[in-house]
Every structure is written in structure tokens, then in C-alpha cells.
Amino acid sequence: MGISHITLISIPVTDQDKALSFYESLGFSVTNDHIMTEEEMPPEPDLRWLQLGTTTGDTTVVLANWTVGGLEPGVMHMSVAADDVKALHKSLALKNFDPSPIFDAPFGSFFNVNDPDGNGVMVVEEKK
Prior knowledge:
The chain is an alpha/beta fold. It has helices at residues 16-26, 85-94; strands spanning 8-12, 29-35, 48-53, 60-64, 77-81, 103-105, 108-114, 120-126. 16% of the residues lie in helices and 35% in strands. A 4-stranded mixed beta sheet has the order 1-4-3-2, covered by helices on one side. A 4-stranded mixed beta sheet has the order 5-8-7-6, with no helix packed on it. The model has no long low-confidence stretch (mean pLDDT 93).
């Protein structure tokens, strides 16, 4: 009994396509993209459900341009794991996403970067 894993995290955004470009640069890919019906999203049908996942994880994210639990764009923060922080850092910098410098910590190397709405993402290469 109890929770087995996190299935979904909602990330509030203002422009789903702009946010999608950022999250794809991190390595996420679209797992579900459709317009919701009245049965799925009463009383606000016609909203776009844009769900992203990673290649190895059970947790997905939804780029929500509607209010989720009172959250506004720019207030979320999450941490994600990467196999090669230096390569991902370089790739994001080349795309003008402005990542912080890379830091070394007891748990691994990491940097921080914000999505286009200011939601924070800490990218960690965990020590093995």
C-alpha cells in the first residue's frame, strides 16, 4: 500500500509551443498532444493537453496553459537527471537558454536553467 511513483507534474506556462521547444532541448519528448473534450476538462474544453516524458522515467510533465491548483507560470522548480551535464549545458547555452555555471556538490555536478516562463530546472549529473 502507498505511493509507487509520481506519474505527472503540471508545469504552468503561457506559450505551450515555446515551452515545448525548451523541454525538448532538455531531452523530453511528446507522449500525448491533443485537444481535450468536455468530458476530459469540464468546464473548459478545447484546451491542449501537451504531455512530455523522458526515455527512462515513469514521471511525465504537462505543459499547462490553464490554472493548476492556483499555480502561475514561473513558480515551479524541479530537478532532473542527465548523464552528461557538460554536454547538455553547452547545448542549452548555444540555444540561448542561459544556464547557470556548472557547480560541483557532494551529490553530483549540476546547473540551473529557467524555461521561457521562469520555471526553474536543476539539471544534475548524479554521482554514481
